[in-house]
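[Discussion] Sanity-checking designs against the backbone

I'm trying to build intuition for which residues belong where. Below is a structure token string of 127 positions. I'd appreciate it if someone posts a full sequence so I can compare it with mine line by line.
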């Protein structure tokens, strides 16, 4: 699958996806350099908490025109894997996510994340 960093030249894809899901549009200036699009199927951001070894995977969104659930699941798994690699390269020790979507939570769990008891985030992975 093709992995590309989110930038001003491909940001319009995200605008289309946000609109397609009737979600508020995340401004480009809010999207960190550690954000990627996978095969025009899905995208996500990974943010560092200040200068700590804690990182968050957030802003995960998919192309609403992709109806093939298996393809979308595969792309989301690649997205989580690639964002985890980016965090490792930045010396992350813990990655969190606060996704409320059960289907995405399942993909996190299949990528070595664990459910957490905290109300502010749902899955975590020490690396």
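Best answer:
Here's mine. Compare freely.
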């Amino acid at each position: 699958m093709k992995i590309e960093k989110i930038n001003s030249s491909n940001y319009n894809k995200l605008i289309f996806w946000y609109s397609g899901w009737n979600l508020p549009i995340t401004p480009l200036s809010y999207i960190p350099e550690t954000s990627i699009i996978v095969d025009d199927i899905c995208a996500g951001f990974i943010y560092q908490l200040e200068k700590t070894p804690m990182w968050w995977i957030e802003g995960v969104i998919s192309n609403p025109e992709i109806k093939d659930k298996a393809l979308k699941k595969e792309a989301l798994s690649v997205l989580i894997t690639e964002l985890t690699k980016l965090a490792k390269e930045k010396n992350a020790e813990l990655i969190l996510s606060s996704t409320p979507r059960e289907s995405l939570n399942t993909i996190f769990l299949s990528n070595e994340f664990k459910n957490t008891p905290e109300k502010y985030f749902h899955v975590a992975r020490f690396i």
